[in-house]
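DATA SHEET
Item: assembly model
Revision: 1
Owner: S.N.
Input lines:
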Amino acid sequence: MIKRLNRRFEKMQTLVKILSAAVLILCVATGFVYGKELPPVKIGAAGPFTGDLSKIGLDALNAIQMAVDEANAEGGIRGRKIEVVVGDDMGDPSKGVLVAEKFAMDRNVLGVVGPMNSATAAAALPAYDRAGLVIISQSATNPDLSERGYRVMHRICPRDDAQGPAAARFIVEEVKAKVIYVIDDKSTYGQGLADQVAAALERMGVKLERGQISSEDRDFSPILTRVKAAQPDLVYLGLSNPAQAAGLLKQAVGLGLSTKFMGGDCMKEKDQLVAGAGGAAEGMYITAIGKDIAEVPAAREFIEKFEGKYGAMSVFSGQSYEATKILIEALRAAAGDDPASLNRAKVLDAVHNIRDYNGILGFPISFNEKGDVLGASIYVYQVENDDFVEIKEYPAEV
Amino acid sequence: MHGIFAQLPQQLINGLTLGSVYALLALGYSIVYGILRMLNFAHGDIFMVGSLIGWAVLQLFINGGAVLASPSLVLLLMVCGAVVVTSLLGGAIERFAYRPVQEGSRLTTLISALGASIVLQNIAMLMTQGRAKAYQTELIIPHDWAISAFGATVSATRLIIFCVSIGLMLAMDYAINHTMLGKAMRATSQDREAAEYMGIRTQQVIMAAFIIGSGLAGIAGVMIGLYYTQVDFMIGFSAGMKAFTAAVLGGIGNVRGAMAGGLVLGLAESLGVLFLAPVYKDVIVFSVLIAVLILRPQGILGKPVEEKV
């Protein structure tokens, strides 16, 4: 027995010797390669790539990858390849912080597209700030994010304090609703947006009632029964998950509740909201924080390529592509003639100094001092024959 | 606050529908506990698997374009599919997660069940990519099939859920009290060793309890799919929690108690919402549990020690 163990031990020893030799050779070899070629520039992609919101997240990730592939085909950053590092936060703030710390530790990550959710962005911002790592969010709309004085914060979507009042204006001026019921899901985004809508409605002197559910709820009968008793002209949904909204719309029909519904930007999701609600979403109003890029001529090429490769676009695909393109543009500007000199501080300045970037969103993009986007609009869409039809545009004023 | 009385009829209906599903789920919990004194934590996840199987069967028929031909047959096949898969799953859990550790302490079986629960949840997450699946209920039961009375709307879906659940519970109650298998189950529950001396194959009785309990959970899964209209891999946890609460509320191990507990829980949840914000509905549920445990620790219908099934 002991002899056998000994023999095994000897075998192990030779194995370890061979392995260490191999590792040594590898180290030397890669050293040679790195001596000639710079390491790739890495772009972090932070978002919910699994879990409840994975549909939105994965389509965003595809768009980010597409923008990077295109840039690499054009030679990357002065010959330096670009690589996407995936950071899945599942829409969970605590995981958002871990993702930020993972990106921060990798010195080659020079910029981040995301985080997509307001709650994850709010939690992860301090970590990004400590690392001096610039972020461009395609969809985090909570106003507070850019009011906390973090210089790394940038976003290409208008804030909820622009979206909320626009929705309120539409409710009062166009729908002419008198009694309104506002439901939210307690999330940073959902409740934040509902607060903005409610505040704007109250300023306009409209009567409203509020109710809350939680983002884990699947049974909406209790709240819908309350809504039914209040007999509102319109129900505003401050929810972050379009699939949850679809369930709510369907259960409302089951309860014999007939009223108008309205929701925020993340609802503009054909698969989950319209198909998921099986006809119950017909007539619903939705505010969007970007134009439907199908109507922007400059976006035609992107849409064809994207849909040819990944199938139907989802709500934030275009914005994710744009945010990535802006980050790459900034990387190129920061690199100048010397791609080896790229660092996070330079990239942060370059993103901050982007002026009138003309991409696929249909308006020139610049950032203000706080990192908020300038010149955006809020659009109101309505679900008609299982599709979204634009019916109104408001400038995004805070 | 819009007239509590105006909402009362509808919330009663909501409570009865939801309560009947909780009761069905609690029944499975109670049968297994009654016989083994073991909390089957995987029960909620078996329920979740049942709801996903129901969705898959429905989707199969929608893609085949055969739903409109015979909606009631499709519904029946959804239930059958769910029952077959969940019963097999229940049997497998008994064989591989419970039987190998049954000689160990009670904590060992508990942890093993917890492990089975995590495995099921993660498999379901991987298979659904973590996305919610929408039951296209309108294709089986049109939205406008509903009765309205006293300000309450009772949709056909709710009637089906309620009738199926109550029917199954009555059948189970009969089976446990009047059939040989039921007798064997009661005997095993009272004293396993003595039951073995009397020639009862207790291992098979335990297997049967797992299979029956899981089959009921599968049916409850399809029912909840019809009710929520959306299911995902996470629904098992909170439903399992509620079912466990219902079982304890009614007196764990007691079959009629589980049914009563489920209905009480569903009604408490719905009627509590009349006075408190809907977001506190889980608070109400667990407050009721705490109150019952303080005032009547053995549960509503539980009798201390003897005659537990």
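QC remark: The mean pLDDT of chain A is 89.
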